[in-house]
């Protein structure tokens, strides 16, 4: 009788262990070369059940030994992992996703004596000497704008005409005349260059980091994009972009986006 009870005990233990191994919880983190990956789709190809990674790249799901998990993300290459005894023991499955690389096909253009292949014909293209000369002429990187000049050395004949916009000028006494100063033309060029950069800066920044970075990562509404840049501008983001300090610029945008979103939510 005792032997039968002992046999039943071992049989029950084996069945219990087998049942425990049928399904169990695993958890892990999805990362790539830039950090965590959120909204990764994790699908169990055997049970056809799935889940998503959260904003911190973490996920959790029920699996069985032998199940095949498929990890997919729009900007990453697909990864397939099989649940084995090691994963069953540790209950942890971290996954690294490699980013997709897009390669454009070579464009074939037929014209005149060109062969049609960019890699060959670009060496035949004549240099744009006018463009290079204009680029050198408008290069003010070596100009010391802090230096004060006595005169701008511009011919008096090419000075612009004086435009009288003050209605009281007609009542000025005889002999009096209004003069528009035209000195320090280098500073005027610098100001024009700065204004031109400030106008183009939002477009350059969006082209550099992409619209998805501001809308998906920073959660900045599309209609608030320019307002958000004005909000961050006192922190010197334009200077950081000009100096190619992209990492410092990104840190400021990520940090300030949180306080900005709180501010506009309170206003709404």
Helix content: 40-55%
Ranges where pLDDT stays below 50 over 5 or more residues in a row are 15-20
Number of strands: 8
Question: How many domain units?
Answer: 3
Number of helices: 9
Q: Please state roughly what percent of the residues sit in beta strands, choosing from under 5%, 5-15%, 15-25%, 25-35%, 35-45% or over 45%.
A: 5-15%
Q: What gross morphology would you assign?
A: elongated
Structural class: alpha+beta
**Major sheet summary line:** 4 strands, mixed
How do the helices and strands line up, and which of them pair or pack?
Blueprint: H1 2-22, E1 24-32, E2 35-36, E3 41-44, E4 49-52, E5 58-63, E6 68-72, E7 79-82, H2 85-90, E8 95-96, H3 118-121, H4 129-137, H5 185-209, H6 211-217, H7 225-232, H8 237-242, H9 246-267
Task: Fill in the keyword field for this structure.
3 domains; 268 residues; four-stranded antiparallel β-sheet; Immunoglobulin-like; alpha+beta; 13% strand; 9 helices; elongated
